[in-house]
Each structure stands twice: as structure tokens, then as C-alpha cells.
Write a structure and sequence with these properties.
Elements lengths: L4 H32 L1 H37 L1
Helix pairs in contact: 1-2
Amino acid sequence: MSRDLRQYARQTNFRLMAGGLIALFVIGDGLIYLLYGQSAALLGLLCMVLGLAPIVLILLFFTIMDWIVKRANRQ
């Protein structure tokens, strides 16, 4: 039985990022809701989404570039 350590590392990194984002949104926005109310929590949610937008765009750009390079090297 062989082990693919790169896939394991990729899977672990994905799970850590997903858990961090879930903790940020659930715990962070939940505390804002409990301390300041619903309207502040909605504004906090909006700020978190807009703050993550550049990161998501950069990751999307790198994914597309990786796909293009892999396709060009295949030929």
C-alpha cells in the first residue's frame, strides 16, 4: 500500500483552511451578533466576505494559470 504524501498534505491544508474560515464566520460573527446585535453582525459578515474576495480572486487566477500551463505542457 503506497502513501501519497502530497495529496495528504493538500487535503490537510484544505481542511485547516476550511476549519479556520468556518471558525471565523461562525464564532466571529456569532460573537458580534451576541454583543452588538443583528445589524452589526450583518455588517461584520459583509466586511468578512469583502475582505476574503481579493484572496479568492487571486486563488482563482492561480488555478486558471496552473490549468493553462498543464494544458500547454501536455502538447
